[in-house]
Amino acid sequence: MTMNPTSVASGANALRATCANALRVLAMDAVQAANSGHPGMPMGMADIAEALWRHHLKHDPADPQWMDRDRFVVSNGHGSMLLYALLHLSGYALPMAELKRFRQLHSLTPGHPEVGVTPGVETTTGPLGQGIANAVGMALAEKLLADEFNRPGHAVVDHRTYVFLGDGCLMEGLSHEACSLAGTWGLRKLVAFYDDNGISIDGDVKGWFGDDTPGRFEAYGWTVIRAVDGHDFDALDRAIAAAHASEKPVLICCRTRIGQGSPNRAGTAKAHGEALGAAEIALTREALGWTAAPFEIPAPVAQAWSALARGAAAHGEWRERFAAYERAYPDLARELLRRTRPAAGLSEETEAALATACADAERLRANVATRKASQDVLQEVGPATPELLGGSADLTGSNLTDWKGHRPLKGQGTGNHVHYGVREFGMAAIMNGVMLHGGFRPFGGTFLTFSDYARNGVRMSALMKLPVVYVFTHDSIGLGEDGPTHQPVEHASSLRLIPNVDVWRPADATETAVAWRETLRRTDGPGCLLLTRQALPHAGDGTRRLDAIARGAYVLRRPAGERVALLASGSEVGVALAAAELLAADGIAARVVSVPCMDVFERQDATYRRHIVPRHLVRIAIEAGSTGLWWKFVGEDGDVIGIDRFGESAPASELFRLFGITADRVAQRARSLLAGETSRTTDAAPALADR
Amino acid sequence: MTMNPTSVASGANALRATCANALRVLAMDAVQAANSGHPGMPMGMADIAEALWRHHLKHDPADPQWMDRDRFVVSNGHGSMLLYALLHLSGYALPMAELKRFRQLHSLTPGHPEVGVTPGVETTTGPLGQGIANAVGMALAEKLLADEFNRPGHAVVDHRTYVFLGDGCLMEGLSHEACSLAGTWGLRKLVAFYDDNGISIDGDVKGWFGDDTPGRFEAYGWTVIRAVDGHDFDALDRAIAAAHASEKPVLICCRTRIGQGSPNRAGTAKAHGEALGAAEIALTREALGWTAAPFEIPAPVAQAWSALARGAAAHGEWRERFAAYERAYPDLARELLRRTRPAAGLSEETEAALATACADAERLRANVATRKASQDVLQEVGPATPELLGGSADLTGSNLTDWKGHRPLKGQGTGNHVHYGVREFGMAAIMNGVMLHGGFRPFGGTFLTFSDYARNGVRMSALMKLPVVYVFTHDSIGLGEDGPTHQPVEHASSLRLIPNVDVWRPADATETAVAWRETLRRTDGPGCLLLTRQALPHAGDGTRRLDAIARGAYVLRRPAGERVALLASGSEVGVALAAAELLAADGIAARVVSVPCMDVFERQDATYRRHIVPRHLVRIAIEAGSTGLWWKFVGEDGDVIGIDRFGESAPASELFRLFGITADRVAQRARSLLAGETSRTTDAAPALADR
């Protein structure tokens, strides 16, 4: 392959080269101004970006929310300046002043692309591998939405998802999970451009990345377009045309030079992540024949880049199409608009189903596993909520994420319950993509322990304010015989630590129903439902209980003459109630506080918090997991009964005894504390001989 | 492919079929007795296990620690009963009584295989994908150790690593990371048996796993032996012989039936994870022609299975080989024995290097980033510690995990600093495998935020009590412009929550050196070193400081008439010291407590803890991250100044001001608390307008 030096392009492609160079110069100048950032990728992928954005991408800079726009994802998110340059030049509401403030506080041009901050940015990227997985989710959503809403002659949902990605994304395991699914699902409107520049931060990738990537993607069932010169516009055009003709997802392998245009840095790892410096920038300008000052774009170039007219035309054409659709299928059109409205709330039908689920749970007072109670909620909510897109990472029958009448999504079919296979991280990142696309409300299940595998995906849901729902079952040693590899200990608390995640650990069927209701009502962040394998007793009742649960913590038992407060979540609420009975028999009145969601409780006002957890009571918290976060609520004179070591393989009931998560032990601790003994030193710890 | 019905095998293979059936029956009977477990995989892979274990595996049941044994990993760890049956029948110290206690409390036969619990179990598996990655680490360790110690005619390190794995492992992204590296590294002694039974928990895998797996592994540079009948002993023998002749890692694709032998469950998802039930067990016994009672093995079968004689012979032959090596290369032999001794401590040379590093740091009082201070430690320790196997997930120049004179491990070469590529989880699980193998002390680096990607690998280090070292740099908003995707907030605390992980967040070069010392001295669990990108001032000195740091928390500043205690870790220790100076100017005496390792501090006796953090002082903790875990130390009348929301993209110094991690704010809070104002309500919070 011979490289086509961008600087000497001529004839019909001269303008294209100049347009691409505008991206290069903006990127290098912005990184230089910030003295921070990554010029290498933007300069290397500038020609590809020109080919895609100026000639193929369907978008309307005047309306970044246009539902039927093509989606564009920079999975190698450190190349953010490429995206900002594209958005600015295309005509999005991203003025040059913001490019000058690249990576400065509260600019519209943060270090990595952030959805919700910059108009036209479709997803937040940077953590490698997640962008391509988000894109798979977007393409899945497009396919499902088209299948559901399009009618013959009325293709109102018909757009592509384009991704830029690099070696880093391809090394990450997540790319395997997501791209395997894209192939299995046959997502033919997904087109990924692989920036095959042979360089990652540590240098020449051959030393740690020997994959035959085209062969790998063919094994996933993708169309692979090999060995495209990423600096040859004609070759890129041919590749994109071929991609559009494919019936499978497409990987276009583009041979590029990182930092292309920089005489001394191009093709080196040094081009990746630092400013070129004034001298090299001058040399690069010279090599590119670029004479304009930093952050100045010559008028002909600006004109050539503007996508406003083309975007308005495309959008207008679609509006006409949609108007025809609206006339032919008014109900469908209304529903499609409802579904794809940004931050769409729940329908009345869904709210009614949730109300029924809550009322039924409270009325039936069933002793069930909360994972089963969750499925009972889905039996109501599923049929009432067409936007619901459930799923599980190959644990459907254990997570109980399916419901009567659900339609399993397998292979190239459609459906509303996704079999993600054993791919927890892939599931999370794909759900994020589905949510970003719009039209669906995704939720997915796995064992709580394996939330670890998905962890940064959950974090990205939270950072992007996406109300994705995570159903994490088998939430403690209560899972029993599978043993410590499968028993969560630290997971409830460590999920609580992620900002903007609401972690619910309901104590019975009613709390489970309310947890679902509150989680589905969220519009600005994810919820995790931590559910038991084992059956739990109904914990309490009362007409006002539903509202109380929704505040994150509430008093379940409030005897006269209280001296003790027992705080607990989930399966330990029953333990606390039993302990309170034991104490009552000794004449000690104990309040029981259920804490289904510590995160929500912490958002209540101080008066409510003090009302529920009064400082004058001796307080003990009980949770079959890490103790650390509970000290905030019990104070130094209280105690926390939990588990700060790994579990064991044995039947669950034996484990609760072994680890001392019992009413007897709680009652004993309360008596000790009331007798003035200091905490943490006098506890008759259960026999925890380590092996 | 025609299945060879195991029950009608005849001729030379009749005994082999019977031996395989012994595995099947033990597995189904043990699962039945426990009424819990997974019969499907053991019954499906029994013939493969017979072929490998009775005819090829080099091991000595009388000495499970024999250094040159072949390693055997059940990556599909739910098939634990297959492994227990193999170990029992081969002659390991695993009596039948323990098989009867499958999945019972403190048995030697927990639900999933656990290293350190059961003789002969090489690694703890169950979390899918990690076993194969551990195996890659073992094979890497074998290769490196052989390269370092073998001499012509003296192949004292020469063994293979075998892995069983299933569809679940292959769907997990981790398998991509590990197997890509195995191919790049050319680990020719790694042989994986793929249990291609077409079934995962949700059913027929075709609906969610459409990969051409052989094609995928060829793309990694593996030898793939396709379409082997996993129930045909002759075909398996041929495949294993071919594998041994390969110059690359080998994947043997075995077509099997899950639950093979069970007339009604074989080939179904129902065979996977539940007991067959008495009726089906009777039918299976009949189909297999197995008449012995549960947990009884006919003498000829037991005799056929015993590997004691073969193992003793192989081990004896190796002992002779090693004796000859010892005569020829006494120094090498001594060093090899030192390196491969279980739980080998540090050498005198390493201890001396650590002592030098600690003393130098304290003497030089340099203001450096702790990541740089860490590299300074490695400059001392690296050359003195041949067992050290460093590495980074493509961030060598940022993590500063290399040292002068390190030898980079790339491609098929050897070395002592591994370029893992952008594969955080793979790095963790491979390091676990290296540690389990013995001969090396692995450490690896990435950005702290991306500890999320590796999280369950860190957990497995802890569960397996492996003293792997994680170097997590860029440990807070101090990383600056890269923004919230790259800025850790909850990570320090969430790593602290994992049992048996020691998380060090040193405040200066001296604390960094001691953190390395204490982490390297551990023999029973991992350590995480959380290091800054930005320079930090030297925090204090004194001859006794080194010992104090090692206790996890200590008093750095103790003025007369103390009223306030400021607790901090890492980069916030400097903030606390500055705040104490501000308070001193107001006549308020403030103690400063540095808390480099909360985990170690919590293991100190109560007297020491109260001595360092006295209850009578008004206490404020400061850490640029989640606040939750600090309340235990400051009490309800204290306060915690931290960050419970996501970061921002901006220069680091601006971010510390934005988030209020400043001496001014700390001093102001201290004054407020002393004035009797209640915590958390009166704080003049910094302007944190959310976008």
From TrEMBL, chains A, B:
InterPro entries: THDP-binding (IPR029061), Transketo_C/PFOR_II (IPR009014), Transketolase-like_C_2 (IPR055152), Transketolase-like_Pyr-bd (IPR005475), Transketolase_bac-like (IPR005478), Transketolase_BS (IPR020826), Transketolase_CS (IPR049557), Transketolase_fam (IPR033247). Its cofactor is Mg(2+); Ca(2+); Mn(2+); Co(2+). Binds 1 Mg(2+) ion per subunit. Can also utilize other divalent metal cations, such as Ca(2+), Mn(2+) and Co(2+). Residues 368-538 form the Transketolase-like pyrimidine-binding domain. The keyword Protein transport does not apply. It holds the Pfam family Transketolase_N. It catalyses: D-sedoheptulose 7-phosphate + D-glyceraldehyde 3-phosphate = aldehydo-D-ribose 5-phosphate + D-xylulose 5-phosphate. NCBIfam families: tktlase_bact (TIGR00232). Catalyzes the transfer of a two-carbon ketol group from a ketose donor to an aldose acceptor, via a covalent intermediate with the cofactor thiamine pyrophosphate. This is Transketolase. The lineage of its organism: Bacteria, Pseudomonadati, Pseudomonadota, Betaproteobacteria, Burkholderiales.
